[in-house]
Amino acid sequence: MKRLTLTRFMIEEQRRSGLLRPELRLLIETVARACKSISHAVGKGALGEVLGNLATENVQGEVQKKLDVIANELLLEANEWGGHLAAMASEEMETIHRIPSRYPKGEYLLLFDPIDGSSNIDVDLSVGTIFSVLTAPADASGREITEQDFMQPGSRQVAAGYAIYGPQTLLVLTLGTGVYEFTLDREVGSWQMTDGPMRLSEGTCEFAINMARHQQWSPAIRRYIDERLAGEDGPCGKDYNMRWTASMVADVHRILKRGGIFLYPADHRTSGKARLRLMYEANPMALLIEQAGGAANNGLERILDVEPQGLHERVGVILGDKKEVEAVAAYGLELREIAHS
Ligand code: F6P
Ligand code: MN
């Protein structure tokens, strides 16, 4: 079967819409190339001596895995010299990485989580790379890029996607006009389209949440999950399934393919302390999910509308099937209304 490669898809997209700039296309090609190298490193496992922890912690106080650092380096090196970027930011780096002065500077800003779900690395379960692309503010050319230049809501992303390193290596991408999946042909080394435009199935009875955190949920989240757990005899009148991979990429990918809802809500007890990061986890996933016909909010507002206050800011995440996401939001609203009446 003849399939469309990632390169051809983007060139045709460029011709069709006239909106995809060649510089952005080349940037995505570079990110995709780095993901191939990461896939290779992940696949080597113990044989490549890439498993296990380092003695270091990242800016969020999490122990770094060897692969966190390897993948971060691969992304930095691949993207530094191409001339498409003004700066990069990563879960693994405290502050932004400016393009060194020996290379030409471009207009894009790239953010990434090099290895998402790193606790899965050592047990041979799926991990992924998440990325988001913004445009540097117009007044940034000719001056040094600052962290402030990254402080743009997710609605301003010009591209977002993830690679998933599972039984197959996939790249799931949006350039703002639909979501497309490409599978890595390992022998040839090319990305071939295997799905798209992807549409989220509606009405699926599946939810993904870390059940062990139920004592931290707000009454709205508790009510939503309890009603689903009640199954056929409960208010939903049907049985639900629960799935949790502990890798956002894998859990969101399942939802993109099969429907359902993913929740990592903010902690109700500690006035909104959340787990997932806005800029390089929640925003790219929210754009992908919205582009596939779903919805994404933080319990109060659309994730893509959140005005970021910091590079590593965390946010509650509820995304997937629009009706389900709206149901959670409606419970929240009802409870807030009761509390304020
Ligand atoms: O990057 C954070 C992350 O690893 C996500 O990929 C995943 O959804 C979540 O944390 C897992 O959290 P927990 O450890 O609570 O299962
Ligand atoms: Mn992550």
Automatic annotation (TrEMBL):
UniProt EC number: 3.1.3.11
Q: Which Pfam families match?
A: FBPase, FBPase_C
Q: Where in the cell is it found?
A: Cytoplasm
Q: Which UniProt keywords apply?
A: Carbohydrate metabolism, Cytoplasm, Hydrolase, Magnesium, Metal-binding
Which parts of the sequence belong to the Fructose-1-6-bisphosphatase class I N-terminal domain?
Answer: 5-195
What does the UniProt cofactor note say?
Answer: Binds 2 magnesium ions per subunit.
UniProt subunit comment: Homotetramer.
For this entry, the protein name equals Fructose-1,6-bisphosphatase class 1
Q: What is the originating organism of this protein?
A: Sphingomonas natans
Upper lineage: Bacteria, Pseudomonadati, Pseudomonadota, Alphaproteobacteria, Sphingomonadales
